[in-house]
Amino acid sequence: MKRMLMVAAAAALTATGALAQDFPSKPVTFVVPFAAGGPTDKVARDLAEAMRKPLNGQIIVENVAGAGGTLGATKVAKASPDGYTLLVYHIGMATSPALYRNLQYKPLEDFEFVGLVNEVPMTLIGRPSLPAKNYAELSKWLSDNKGKVNLANAGLGAASHLCGLLFQSMTKTEMVTVPYKGTGPAMTDLIGGQVDIMCDQTTNTTGQIEGGKVKAYAVTTTKRLSTPALKNLPTLDESGLKGFDVSIWHGVYAPKGTPKPVLDKLNAALKAALKDGEFIKREEALGAVVVTDDRTSPAGHKKFVEGEINKWGPVIKAAGTYAD
């Protein structure tokens, strides 16, 4: 019996090795859990192009939108663990456990982590008619108008929603949260003066700041940004909110049980893509920063996501924000 088990184990290892050696023998699918045309979709399509050559295979993108990204994530969690179905997801990977009561997967248990891709900074902006000229004046204005300030966001679980929750928590300021169905209508009302402030990704705010359509008060990263339109903006950390650090990031995930040799191939292709000059250029055009540290490794990526889950869980639960 013992000999039979040893033979079976050796056969399994041989099969796994052969699978990895032949991988990929057919197109790999990137599942994007949002509609086509959005920031995550753009990142996934650029990444697919950059990974195609080092992976020596075709990568196609499939959009599976719905339920704040959780439908697409659930599809990948339940997919065959062979490396051919991958998930490209943003910060929702870390916030969904606290946001959704009936989540069909566990981020840290139901996925293999391939690596982190990028980070997108955020900015705190206000309507053009807001009297505050800088963050110090904004802070006083918020304090003087507790309970009256309208804080816009693009919907439950959106980057602007999460940033707004943390901002309220760290400033201990009550605001009237105004959710919209997307960044577009939220930005339109901010420019029109129907709402007061919003915290959103540089991908959505830089053009409005450059055009003078909104007032910009601070960036949410711990270091100032080098982007010409944003380089003079202080950070919230230096403005008094010590430790305030919010970026919207994107990572790549495979179903739990995907063989390590296959994951190694995928990670090697990812790391090669992150050094690709054209990919870096495209990400910079989106206002994103390509990750170059240990978080591009499976272990580093998983440790980072675990930290993000621990960071956002208490903030979301304290706000009493849930979805079924």
UniProtKB/TrEMBL annotation:
It comes from the Bacteria. Keywords: Signal. SUPFAM superfamilies: Periplasmic binding protein-like II. Residues 1-20 form the signal peptide. InterPro entries: BUG (IPR005064), Bug_dom1 (IPR042100). Pfam families: TctC. Belongs to the UPF0065 (bug) family. This is Tripartite tricarboxylate transporter substrate binding protein BugD.
